[in-house]
Amino acid sequence: xxxxxxxxxxxxxxxxxxxxxxxxxxxxxxxxxxxxxxxxxxxxxxxxxxxxxxxxxxxxxxxxxxxxxxxxxxxxxxxxxxxxxxxxxxxxxxxxxxxxxxxxxxxxxxxxxxxxxxxxxxxxxxxxxxxxxxx
Length: 135
Hints:
The protein is of the alpha+beta class. The chain has helices spanning 2-12, 109-134, and strands spanning 22-25, 28-31, 44-48, 58-61, 67-70, 76-83, 89-96, 101-104.
């Protein structure tokens, strides 16, 4: 019975967890501005990988400063298309010759799992001692 209760408590503790990972990689940053110097802010863009000209690798909007940021996953010529509702826009070819990646894991799932197991075990131990003293 104790084992079943332990497993139920332990298994539900990770049900809503989101595992995160911070990657510090070489990203492509394109900064776009209108001719008067104003940033091409919050405009739509699409990035196409070298092996696909129909399905975008990533879609989004430029940031406040008119930047498009994407992290390519392969070498080759990437196409970046940006456009606004009033007809402004551009198409750029970006040549990726090498990929440099550094990964830094920020998921502390293992530590949370061990801590949860220890706390649950201690609670069951204390409940067992309490129940023995009552007898």
